Each structure stands twice: as C-alpha cells, then as structure tokens.
Amino acid sequence: MPRITIEPFAHSYECEDAESVLEGALRHNLLLRYGCKHGGCGTCKVRLVDGDVDEHGSSFALTDEDRAEDLILACASVPLEDCVVDVSPTELSEDEFHSGDTSRPYDTVVESVETLTTDIAAVRLRIIGDRMPFVAGQFVNVEIPGSRLVRTFSLANCPADDDRIELIVKLYPDGAFSQFLRSDAVPGTGVRVHGPYGQLKMRLSHRPVLMIAGGSGLAPLLSMLRDCATQGFDRPVTVFFGARTEADLYLVEEITSIGERLRGFAFHPVLSQSWGPDWPGGTGLVTDAIARWSPTLAHDVYLCGPPPMIDAAVPMLTAAGVRPRNIYFDAFTPAAQTVPA
Ligand SMILES: Cc1cc2nc3c(=O)[nH]c(=O)nc-3n(C[C@H](O)[C@H](O)[C@H](O)COP(=O)(O)OP(=O)(O)OC[C@H]3O[C@@H](n4cnc5c(N)ncnc54)[C@H](O)[C@@H]3O)c2cc1C
Ligand code: FES
After folding, report:
1. Is the pLDDT confidence value at 31 over 90?
2. 243 and 325: one domain?
3. Domain that residue 262 falls in
4. Best of 43, 148, 170, 304 to mutate for ligand 1, by most ligand atoms within 8 A of CB?
5. Is the C or the N end of the chain the one with fewer CB within 10 Å?
6. Ligand nearest to the CA of 333
7. What's the structural domain count of the chain?
8. Residue 153: CB within 6 Å of ligand 1?
C-alpha cells in the first residue's frame, strides 16, 4: 500500500487501494483541508513533492498554473506509489492536522426562503443544538432532504450569528436543491448540513480590499462585510457587484448601510445586459469595469461567482498588477454529489 508523507509535518500514513490522499488522511483521523470531496472547490489543493498520483474524477478546480506548480487535489488524487505531499498551500497548522476533522453534521430547520430576484433566493436555516462556529467566507454542504444528493453553498450570515445558517442560492430550472426550495422547503422542514469547510477568509494585512461578486457569489463576501461592520474593520473596502439587469441586483440597501459603517467604502454595481437611461452605476462585464477602475499591487482581492467570471477576472487582475498570492476566490462550480460518509 502506498505511504503518504505529509510535509512540513514529517508525518506519514498508508492509503488503501483506490483511496485518495484525502480519504486516507481522514481514515487515520488526520485532517487535510477539504470541502466538496469531488474536485469542485479547490480547498484541498496541495503540492506533490515526490511520487505519482492518478487524478480521478473531476479536477476542474486546478488551473494550468496550479498544474505547472505541481499542485494536485488531495480529494481527487489516488497515489500510484509512495508520495510526499506538502500541505503548506492550505495553511493547515500541525495542531489542526493532528486534531483530525472537526467539521460535522448539523441538524437544522428551514426558517424562511425569501425571493431576492427571479432566480436568487435567501435561505435561512436555524441550527438545532450546538452552534456552528465558522469564519466568514467558509461554506457548507447541504443534504437535499429525501435524496442522497449534497450541494455546496457559502455561508452569508455573520459568524457572530452562529446559531443559524443563511445561504444565497441561485435557482436553476433543473437544479435538485433549487427544486427542493421551490416545492418542499416550508418553514420547519428538517435539513442536514455538514461543515464548515473552506479557507476563503479575510487575510490579515495592511492592504485595501477589493471584493468582486457575480450573481449569488455575493454570499461569502456579504458574510465578510457583515463581519467587518461588526468588528470595526479599518481598511478601505471596494465592492463590485455584477448582475444582468437592475432587477438582478439584491440586498443593495444592506450593502450600502454596511458601507456607512466602514472607512473608505465604495460600492460599484455593474449591469451587463440592459440598463435604463438614468442608471448611475457601471455597465458591461464586471471584469471590464474593474479593469477600467485599475486595481493595483496594493489590493487584496476576494472574488466569488460563476467559474467563467473567475476565469476572466483572475488573469485580468494579475495583468493589472495584483499579486496572484493576494487573490482569493471560490468558484461556484455546479455539482452532483452523494452524501459524505
Ligand atoms: C465552494 C463552493 C461554494 C458555493 N457557494 C454557492 C452559493 O453560495 N450560492 C450558490 O448559488 N451556489 C454556490 N455554489 C454552487 C452550487 O453548489 C452549485 O451551483 C450547485 O450545483 C447548485 O445546486 P442545485 O441542486 O440547485 O443545482 P444542480 O442540480 O446541481 O444543477 C445546477 C446546474 O448545473 C447543471 N449540472 C448539474 N450537475 C452537473 C455536473 N456534474 N456538471 C455540469 N453541470 C451540472 C444542471 O443541469 C443545472 O443547470 C458553490 C459551489 C462551490 C464549489
Ligand atoms: S475537496 Fe477537493 S476540490 Fe473540493
């Protein structure tokens, strides 16, 4: 059986046949960071220092640059021989590694499902029992009641409100969770949630912050903004919010009111499809609007939204001079997934 050595902790464990690097670690009560477990979120990106792996399943969370830097997805990589894997890219501490997986299932009930636009809803769940501590930017996996399907959604609420879960969900005509929300999610309905996962979070630095949201991608950024307003954040924050039409923008009043509590706050809604003659905001693709605005080396950038938006924004940001290591994102990749073991 192949042996995996985890650096920088110099700790090794064996993987069984066809077991991924991640599954092997979890089976040995060790933690590697993970989220979706199916190659969709990129949370489990680690560096393969030695050995070889078979990359199975979907691995669209890896970019060409990641591959050039020998990054692999621990959840989607089955070792073919003894391997050395460096987990530094996931910022995992040695204590966390040895403490094992602290994410767990939480039972919740639906409090409300509120329509925000024609295809975006705010979903509020109340946690029954223990609170779920989390960091603004993290996400959860939600079991769809009555099925073995799981869907990934970012937490939109402030971490101070850890007795509840708020999600901002894009509704797809043929989406499984979307269908549940449309038909069955009456108040009181039980929903099991697993988490929290992910390492998108506000980094400590002196740099001003640029946030870029597309569609329901506002969710984790809203959690960060709500947290900033609560904590008295003192760095300038600029938010770009891309939507098709004015009717597709939502929670604008709340964003504006959070902005009034932050120093040096600027909000730029950008419409890509149609706008009235009096529209005061930006127009065109949100990425083009940001390119015109000129982000600089000085910024920490947080972005969330559909994968094409991320794919367009990251090269634009780096071309504009933002350091790749100062760009943090979750791409909202679609998924079909079974309930985690
Ligand atoms: C880290 C992370 C955080 C996320 N946070 C959010 C969030 O806060 N809000 C949000 O709205 N979304 C978020 N997403 C995306 C969300 O998990 C997916 O869009 C999810 O698939 C929606 O579930 P659904 O059941 O409504 O639709 P699904 O049943 O998953 O279908 C969604 C669409 O994708 C298609 N589809 C389904 N499966 C696949 C597949 N395997 N390959 C290609 N296409 C497929 C369907 O035909 C449909 O058009 C996040 C994703 C990730 C990875
Ligand atoms: S846990 Fe590996 S890509 Fe999501």
Report:
1. yes
2. yes
3. 209-331
4. 170
5. C
6. 1
7. 3
8. yes
